[in-house]
Amino acid sequence: MVALSISLLGGFEARLDSGGPLSMPSRKAQALLAYLASRPGRVHPRDKLAALLWGDCGEARARDSLRHTLTTLRKAFRAIPPVLLADGPTVALAPAAVEVDAVVFERLVAEGTPASLETAAALYRGDLLAGLAVSEPLYEEWLVAERERLHELALEGLARLLAHQSRTEQTERAIQTAVRLLTLDPLQEAVHRALMRLYARQGRRGAALRQYQVCLGVLQRELGAEPEAETKQVYREILQRRPPEAATLEAPPRPEPREPRLRPAVRHPELPTAETPLIGRDPALGRLRQALDEAADGRGRVAIVLGEAGIGKSRLVAEVAALALDRDARVLFGRCYESARILPFSSWIDAIRAGLAIAGTDALDTLGHVWRAELVRLLPELGEPRGADAPASEDRLRLFEALAQLVTRFASAGPLLLVLEDLHWADEMSLRFLSFLAHRVGGGPILVVATAREEEVADTLSRTLAELRREPAALELTLGPLSREATAKLVRALGRTGRDALAPAQLEEQVWRAS
Questions:
Q1: 286, 312, 324, 509: least CB-packed within 10 angstroms?
Q2: Dihedral, 44, 50, 55, 59 alpha carbons, nearest 10
Q3: Angle between the N-to-C axes of helices 137-167 and 114-123, in degrees from 0 to 180, rounded to the nearest 10
């Protein structure tokens, strides 16, 4: 009969069969019980255990410490059937009295059936004895080896489970398994490919393309390597599939009766919406409208909009985007994500791809082979660099120049508004390129608008802002709280009922005090 359940995966925990936790007085007692539990029934000589956990003491003192710890364990086990077998020169745990998650995990992976692999995956909650550390070289040596062995076993089991789920069209469960695999080992490029295909199978083209960027960033950061040819091929295949919304926009059921305009045929999927009225931002909107006019006249600008979270930066940007579209300007959006800040140029890639979707191959055809070869480093779908066209070094200025020339080509057919949201989460190379581009936009019809949370401006962004303030083409706006009058106006606008009744003055007062 099982009297004690011991968890070793993801940390140490011992629970009685009644459900209550087993109190362990010291780390050495936990470490000893964990070591014995890793192989229930296996007998261990006392002198080996003493050297394992008290190796820095003399032999007599080490054996005395072991006796004291075993006595402590016996007292803890007093309320349950015999668990500890330690009456002679050896020590062991009674295998019938304990259940250990690591032992069950190994057995389930060895069984290898889909059901057993799923159960094993649920059991593996993390590294063996995570968080339990004792400063004993022999014990740490054993722990590192066992931890690595079980980690590899978990990867093997999850890989087999992923293969089964993929074959049997269990797409959502397969995605969860693939994500779990990459959490344990982000360098498994075959799993990145599998996850890209699974996202594509679900119609999540954007997620599949982002997964390639995650793979690219991990390989470059950890190994200084490029993805394999097979990975790039999967990426190109997914990239060539036309998203449903793009097909709808490019082939509407009825052509509009008016003259064709230069408005983009493909819009970024995360174009900010204007679900609330823009109130109290007339000065900021006026300055951005003026910057848009100047850009249309060939005097490009870079505008930074700062303000705390929720202050209305995105709403202001949406208004500027609407103005730009009404003037037949091209509008490109990029967004920074906290989870993607480790990826170089992550905040620019979506905007650049949107620009290529709008401009087609014209923008690339006028670039020249040298600059196009540089862009392949960020956009593998453009082709493989070959021979003299291949970049000979990691010269960032060459890549910056290629990107700047491409942005300039996007503006060759008319004014361009390029928006970068949440700059506080931008990676370092994205910020460096923004500074570089600020030197170049002054002579073209380009307006770059970037937003950032003022309270989250870190060192790299702070340096970038300092550089931009020295640029004649740069403009910085800081959004403060709404005035009392503007707050009341916003409450009245949002608080209308079906009969257009105004919100009570009491609500206006409450909102003002809360904000």
A1: 286
A2: -130
A3: 140
Alpha-helical (H) ranges within 297-366 are 313-326, 346-359, 362-365
Of 245, 264, 247, 394, give the one whose Cα is nearest residue 332: 264
pLDDT in tens, 56-115: 888 999 999 999 999 999 888 887 778 999 888 999 999 999 999 999 999 999 999 999
Write the DSSP assignment of 1-24 as a string of letters: ---EEEE-BTS-EEEETTSPBPP-
pLDDT above 90 for 161: yes
**Residue 478: count of CB within 10 angstroms of its CB:** 12
469 — alpha (psi -120 to 50), left (phi > 0) or beta?
alpha
pLDDT in tens, 322-361: 888 888 888 888 888 776 666 778 778 878 877 777 766 6
Q: How many CB atoms lie within 10 A of CB 382?
A: 17
State in Å, rounded, how far the first CA of the chain is from the last one: 62
Whether this prediction's pTM lies above 0.70 is answered by no
Domains and CATH numbers, the chain: 1-169 (1.10.10.10), 186-244 (no CATH), 275-480 (3.40.50.300)
